[in-house]
Structure formats: structure tokens, C-alpha cells
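Help needed: design a sequence for this.
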């Protein structure tokens, strides 16, 4: 990819230096490494596209003294001549400097290095991201993936919405929400755009996409939970059933993963050591009853008391699906009504089940979705069955009293999707600034 040179600074990026052989250039970046020898001074400059070696022969001048005074991670601007240097591993070229400007000298010692633990690296995340190619690539992948999701959804008729994140009453059951002061009363941070997406389809916006912040007050300290994350949410009106929702999501994800493979597949393979596999359509499906039967035959949940899949169950059933279907993805459908929200629709004649699903990718749940219950009287009955107080949800419930169409949708976490795709150990590595029960900084 050719990056344009800035018309104001004349800056050339490291990746474009081969286009400027023997010509004068100005590069800007950080001091990645210094080797100050008796006769020669070597500096490796790094920008967001790569690295280049700068080589200066000592001559007792001002430039020699300035290079001797530099520190790692200082921000510099260097003007010089690009020459071929076959012995240099960084692209077989180097810059012979004529001028070096120190734009911001970094203090020493740096607070993190290659041996620093994950929590301290999070304390200085800006340095961590700046210094690590994997982190830089992560956000390039995120940009491509998110753009591809939006591209697919819009092409399929979705309107992008931005719903409120401050709510006057706790959403859904009222659990796992953050309460905040709001003038003379309390408000709550939205744990999902769910209700507002449904309002949008009731408002005549047939297909809704939202990419935005989600807040969950879960005291979870696992590698896959965060208290704030970016949600990818879709709601589809006039659906015939939950199958319409799953078909939309699998096609959307296949499109987005394909775009990542096309743009970054080689780099992901080199940096993360994983292959970005574009999934075949359709994804395999299993009902929860079928999944539990398979798992219990393999020794999972010997007492037969679990209604939901725990992380071990998710990993086991995903392994089974890989072996049986040769696929990294698996839809698990028809969850028990007892463990699903009141607004999930239930199959005719089976009030104990829901027309819902979770999507597993390589053994990790990345999506929850369902056909929604759009009939007011049924919705009220299902809320009462769960012992819910419907008064605080009056504005939401009113939506279903005046001609709400059949609809369904799903929500996914962007960071979890990236975490699985790139083979990361923790969701902390899949976001710029992580938020968890014990972390509100930086």
C-alpha cells in the first residue's frame, strides 16, 4: 500500500522508503533501538508502518553528540539520504542522516520492557501498543473487521442507529447494571441496546445495526469478561423465525472474516501464528438438548443438573462440532426458557424452550440472539412468569401494544470476536484500554 506523503511536513513513512532510493527524505517516529559504537552510530527508527536503520559515522560534530544523547522511545524527525545496504535486515536499505530533530525526549528508564507483566503493561498501555507490532496489527484488524460488518449490514438494508446509554430504569431484569447519579435521581448505564433496537423496528426501521458501548456490572475476573466493551448489535423486522437471524449473522461474519483474511491474513499468520479461516456457510446447528446429550455421554455434568453450558461444556461441544462438521463455528439453539430473558419467543407447544441461540467460535460464546416475542399479551405473561415488575418498563412494553412486527436479532462483543480470531489469551489484549472490576485506569 502506498501511503501519501504529508504535503506540509514532507514526511515519508518507513514502508515507502524503497520508492525514494538515493533521494533525500524526512522520516518521523520513535527511537526503537540505539547501538553506539566506537566508529559508527546506529539508530533504528520506528513508525506505525515499520522500521528503518539510520547509520552515522562518527566525526566529532554536533550530530554525533546529539545521537549519543538520545534515549529509547524519544520522538524524532530525521532528514537524510536513502541508500541501499544489503547487509541491513530491515529492508536492505538505510538512511544516512543529515539532520536529526528531537521532538520529545523520552525519560529513562522506561516503565515497561519486554519482560514486564500484563497488569503493568496495561498501566502504560500507550507505550505497550506503540512498541508492539502485535498490538498495532490488532487495531488494523479491528478496523477492517468493523468496517466489513458495517458494509455487509448496510448492503443488506440495515440502518445504523445510535441509542441512549443512559436509561431511567434498569434494563431487562435489573441485574448487572451500573447505577449513576443523574441530577436529582438515579440513572443506569445500558447493559444492552436491546430494548431500543426493538423500538426502532417498531418505528418502521426494518433492519437495525448498532456498534457502540455496552456496560455490564459483572464481578467477573475471567479472561473473556469486561465491564465495558463495544457491542455489535443487529435487529431484523418481519422475520419468519430465528433461522432468519442466524442466516443473517453467519453471512455477515463470513463476509467480515473474509475481508480480514484478504487484508491481513499473511500478517496475522506471521505475528500471531494463526490462520484466519473464512468459514463455510451455513454454520452447523445443534439444539441445546442435542448438545447436552452429546456432552453427558462424554462425562460432562454427571449429575445432569446444568441447564446452560459452562465454559468447559462450550469447549467440549465445539471440539465435537469440529470433529463432526469440520467447522470452527457452532450455533447452539433452543435454550430453556428458565435461563433466557422474558422477551425471547417460545416455540408453539413448548413453553419450556425459547427460539434463541448462542454462537460458539472455537469453543467460546461470541453471540447471543433470538426471535423476540412481539405480542403484547404473551410478553406480559412471560414477564409475570419470571416474577418481573413491569411498571418500570412501561415505555418499552407500550411498543408492543400498537402493531409491533415480528422481529429477531443478536448481539456480539467486538473484543471477543477479535480475541478468538487472533488466538489471544485474554480480552485485555483485544482492546485499547480495558475496563474490569479492578481497573478504571488509565
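Sure. Designed sequence:
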Amino acid at each position: 500500500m502506498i501511503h501519501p506523503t504529508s504535503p506540509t511536513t514532507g514526511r515519508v513513512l518507513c514502508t515507502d522508503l524503497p520508492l525514494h532510493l538515493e533521494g533525500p527524505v524526512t522520516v518521523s517516529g520513535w527511537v526503537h533501538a540505539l547501538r553506539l559504537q566506537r566508529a559508527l552510530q546506529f539508530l533504528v527508527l520506528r513508525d506505525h508502518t515499520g522500521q528503518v536503520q539510520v547509520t552515522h559515522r562518527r566525526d566529532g560534530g554536533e550530530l554525533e553528540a546529539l545521537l549519543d544523547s538520545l534515549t529509547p522511545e524519544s520522538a524524532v524527525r530525521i532528514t537524510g539520504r536513502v541508500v541501499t545496504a544489503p547487509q541491513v535486515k530491515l529492508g536492505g536499505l538505510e538512511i544516512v542522516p543529515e539532520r536529526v530533530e528531537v521532538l520529545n525526549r523520552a525519560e529513562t528508564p522506561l516503565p515497561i520492557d519486554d519482560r514486564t507483566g500484563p497488569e503493568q503493561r496495561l498501566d502504560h498501555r500507550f507505550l505497550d501498543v506503540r512498541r508492539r507490532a502485535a498490538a498495532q496489527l490488532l487495531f488494523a484488524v479491528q478496523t477492517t473487521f468493523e468496517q466489513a460488518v458495517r458494509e455487509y449490514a448496510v448492503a443488506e438494508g440495515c440502518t445504523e442507529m445510535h441509542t441512549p446509554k443512559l436509561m431511567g430504569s434498569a434494563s431487562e431484569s435489573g441485574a448487572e447494571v451500573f447505577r449513576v447519579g443523574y441530577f436529582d435521581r438515579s440513572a443506569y448505564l445500558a447493559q444492552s441496546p436491546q430494548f431500543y433496537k426493538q423500538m426502532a423496528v417498531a418505528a418502521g426501521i426494518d433492519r437495525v445495526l448498532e456498534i457502540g458501548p455496552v456496560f455490564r456490572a459483572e464481578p467477573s475476573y475471567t479472561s473473556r469478561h469486561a465491564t465495558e466493551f463495544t457491542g455489535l448489535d443487529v435487529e431484523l423486522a418481519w422475520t419468519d423465525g430465528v433461522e432468519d437471524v442466524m442466516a443473517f449473522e453467519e453471512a455477515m461474519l463470513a463476509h467480515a472474516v473474509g475481508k480480514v483474511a484478504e487484508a491481513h491474513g499473511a500478517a496475522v499468520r506471521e505475528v500471531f501464528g494463526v490462520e484466519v479461516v473464512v468459514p463455510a456457510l451455513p454454520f452447523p446447528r445443534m439444539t441445546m438438548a442435542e448438545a447436552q446429550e452429546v456432552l453427558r455421554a462424554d462425562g460432562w455434568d454427571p449429575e445432569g443438573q446444568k441447564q446452560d453450558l459452562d465454559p468447559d461444556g462450550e469447549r467440549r461441544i465445539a471440539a465435537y462440532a469440529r470433529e463432526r462438521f469440520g467447522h470452527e463455528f457452532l450455533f447452539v439453539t433452543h435454550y430453556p426458557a428458565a435461563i433466557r430473558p422474558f422477551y425471547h419467543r417460545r416455540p408453539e407447544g413448548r413453553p419450556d424452550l425459547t427460539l434463541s441461540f448462542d454462537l460458539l467460535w472455537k469453543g467460546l460464546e461470541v453471540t447471543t440472539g433470538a426471535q423476540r416475542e412481539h405480542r403484547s399479551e404473551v410478553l406480559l405473561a412471560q414477564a409475570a412468569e419470571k416474577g418481573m415488575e413491569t411498571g418500570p418498563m412501561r415505555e418499552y412494553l407500550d411498543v408492543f401494544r400498537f402493531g409491533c412486527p415480528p422481529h429477531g436479532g443478536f448481539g456480539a462483543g467486538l473484543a471477543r470476536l477479535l480475541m478468538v480470531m487472533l488466538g489471544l489469551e485474554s480480552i485485555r489484549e483485544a482492546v485499547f484500554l480495558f475496563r474490569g472490576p479492578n481497573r478504571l485506569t488509565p
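The CA atoms of residues 53 and 375 lie 67 Å apart.
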